[in-house]
Amino acid sequence: MANYKLGVLYGDGIGPEIVKASVEVLKAATQQANNGTTFEYKELPMGWEGIKKYNDPVPEITKKGLEDTNGWLMAPHDSAAYPDEHRISKRNPSGELRHHFDLYSNVRPSRALPGTTSLVGNADLVVFRENTEGFLSDRNMYKGTGEYMVNKDVALVTGVFTRQATERIAHEAFKLAMTRRKKVTIVHKANVIKFAYELFRDVCYEVGEKYYPEVEVNDFHIDAMTAHLVRRAEEFDVIVTTNLFGDILSDLAGELVGSLGLSASLNTNGEQAMAQAAHGSAPDIAGQNVANPTSMLLSTVMLLQWLANHHDDHHLNVIAEVIENAVLQTIAEGPTTRDLGGTASTTEFTEAVITRMQA
Ligand code: ATP
Ligand code: MG
């Protein structure tokens, strides 16, 4: 009869719409499972709400509030539109939270779902994105952004790559591969950025030796990898890569299997987990009730599964399954949202998921 504390961050753009949908579905699924599990929801400001109330997109009250949770639902943020004071020389809200909580592992699965138009057959792969280093680094010089204007016409960007951070993300990737098709692909650019990416590649291979001979390993340069992903995505199982490449590859994979609106992700530090859609705040469709909340719903499923594993609590897996089945059935049979070729609004889709759950 466990109670879990979950943070809820509504964020910007389509954030409030897709996070609200996820909380509603989670509440309905908890009721449906009726297995004694309860959740306590803690709404905390992030993004424009934080700027307006506390002059900070990730105010102290939010960080403090999250410390006391098992995990949280993180909305996207439209940080590109923030006033210069918050936009320049500062991490964006995801970066700030990843840094503050050392959420080093970003897991981004992409699989073709029935009812969607996959451009790459039955692809089913998981991208592990190192979350704390590289060119989108939190450990960099220059106020943590890694960027510096040498003069008004010259910009300099630095990146940090360490053995320690590479080892921990590689272990996560290999561990998951053991439960899947047992293949890991390391993605880098060691032919051009030699020190940094050779270190990343070689440390991943070293970690791979601990999983030998069960797990098969290979590696590709990022440019070749984008071509392989388009041509033969079905062959990939687990991909482990650096921060920037992981950001790009997971968007590519997400859209190839159907829509960015389906792309879920989970950020973890081993103790807490942050569920977060892999896409951005989609300002082009914000406030129109047309966004696909599936990305956030499936991120919530990932959070529940991670908590189930971490707390050895099968009841959470039952709730996760209730949500996942209802979402997948709704996508397969309709109604679906615009990005998938349907006409359902965000709220209509969400209601359909809840109705299916209760059927
Ligand atoms: P960021 O830098 O914050 O990741 P981005 O530039 O990658 O942002 P997104 O906000 O991810 O851009 O949007 C990319 C495109 O995908 C947009 O056209 C947007 O409308 C669409 N999109 C993103 N998420 C969804 C969703 N949940 N449902 C429908 N369309 C979406
Ligand atoms: Mg993006």
From TrEMBL:
Key words of the record: Oxidoreductase
UniProt domain Isopropylmalate dehydrogenase-like: residue ranges: 5-353
UniProt cross-references to InterPro entries, sorted A to Z: IsoCit/isopropylmalate_DH_CS (IPR019818), IsoPropMal-DH-like_dom (IPR024084)
GO terms for biological process, alphabetical: isocitrate metabolic process; tricarboxylic acid cycle
Signal peptide start-end: none
Protein family per UniProt: Belongs to the isocitrate and isopropylmalate dehydrogenases family.
Name the UniProt record assigns to this protein: Isocitrate/isopropylmalate dehydrogenase family protein
Upper taxonomic lineage: Bacteria, Bacillati, Bacillota, Bacilli, Bacillales
